[in-house]
Design a protein that fits this description.
By secondary structure, the protein is an alpha/beta fold. It has three domains: 89 residues, Orthogonal Bundle (Arc Repressor Mutant, subunit A); 95 residues, D-Maltodextrin-Binding Protein, domain 2, CATH 3.40.190; 103 residues, Periplasmic binding protein-like II (D-Maltodextrin-Binding Protein, domain 2). The protein has ten helices and ten strands. The strands form three sheets. It has a five-stranded mixed beta sheet. Strand 1, helix 5 and strand 2 form a beta-alpha-beta unit. It starts with 11 loop residues before the first helix and ends in a 34-residue tail after the last helix.
Length: 329
């Protein structure tokens, strides 16, 4: 690279190295994923730090915590890589036809995903439809970039301005019927630290004077749900994810706030043209109140009988309130 431009351009491979390190959790795994040596990965991160004028990760051997600068770089890196990869997809030597891309959160249950795939995989416009499951922040970033067309987002910070539909989703505490919570004992949590839901759950418990500990953690929602069914702990979930084998805790734990959710479209999307597909997606995703079969439990379930129910720290979860639902005509 000409010296005149040496500090004006950041090589894309440096950004890909950073994102891969964060996503895999280690330099070694990132090196394997990118088919590089660990020393090469370390050199790329060091060079990125020099170009940006500061450290990307906190000091300390093996420390994988991004600095304040590192977090900012990571946000831009994801966006730049998405644009790079999209450019290669649609304008590269093996470019593919433009698809209608639907973004969905990775915590949606298997049956709900199957139903969405089956009913939304064919667009009335004749376009190919593809799906992407990921974390809310990534879906939001890709939606803002235009690499996905519509996305179902919950509790998104600064959600997109084009809303196909918006509503509130009920959130509840769940556990296995065989799990008994002892009065005054720490609450065993099933979680994935760093997520918005996990942070809210911990803050509510602490504010209520209840101690808790992480009994199981995993990034995959299916694994967390399995841990609940096995009786390892309690989990805060959206009511739509209550499945047979787990029960809603009605009393004894602090009431969880509703999630603000919606289906959002990228800038420039022709809503009327895609109205039939968007209408089907909206009908599938707007939640219904917990059915009596899913939410009703005999007296003595939840925390009843443990001594915690007497504290009346929570009321039965409210019904789902659908508001500002913009149906596509």
């Amino acid at each position: 690279m000409h010296r005149r431009y040496a500090k004006k351009n950041i090589p894309i491979e440096l950004l890909r190295a950073l994102v891969t390190i964060v996503d895999t959790g280690s330099y070694t795994k990132a090196a394997d994923a990118l088919d590089l040596t660990q020393s090469a990965i370390s050199s790329q991160i060091a060079r990125l730090g020099r170009l940006l004028g500061g450290s990307i990760f906190a000091k300390g051997r093996g420390n994988m915590t991004p600095t304040k600068r590192g977090l900012l770089v990571l946000q831009y890196a994801r966006r730049m890589l998405a644009m790079n990869d999209e450019l290669l997809t649609f304008a590269g030597p093996n470019s593919a036809p433009r698809q209608f891309v639907i973004g969905l959160p990775s915590w949606l249950g298997d049956q709900r995903l199957i139903e969405i795939f089956e009913r939304c995989s064919v667009s009335p416009t004749g376009e190919l439809v593809s799906f992407r499951c990921d974390r809310t922040e990534r879906l939001l970033g890709d939606l803002n970039l235009g690499s996905i067309d519509v996305a179902y987002l919950c509790n998104a910070i600064n959600p997109p301005r084009i809303a196909v539909a918006q509503w509130s989703e009920q959130t509840v505490w769940v556990k296995s019927p065989k799990l008994v919570l002892s009065p005054g004992a720490p609450i065993p949590l099933i979680s994935w630290p760093g997520t918005t839901g996990d942070r809210v759950a911990v803050e509510l418990l602490e504010d209520s004077g209840m101690h808790c500990f992480v009994a199981f953690s995993a990034p995959e929602f299916s694994a967390r749900l399995a841990a609940v069914a096995a009786g390892l702990g309690v989990l805060a979930v959206q009511a739509r994810n209550v499945v047979p084998g787990i029960e809603v805790i009605r009393h004894g734990l602090p009431e969880l706030p509703d999630n603000k959710a919606g289906i959002y479209a990228r800038d420039g999307l022709e809503l009327e043209r895609h109205a039939p597909l968007l209408r089907t997606l909206t009908d599938l995703l707007v939640p219904h109140p917990l059915s009596e079969s899913a939410s009703a439990h005999p007296a003595g379930t939840g925390l009843a009988g443990t001594g915690l129910a007497g504290k009346e720290l929570a009321t039965p979860p409210p019904r789902v309130r659908t508001h500002e639902l913009h149906r596509v005509r």
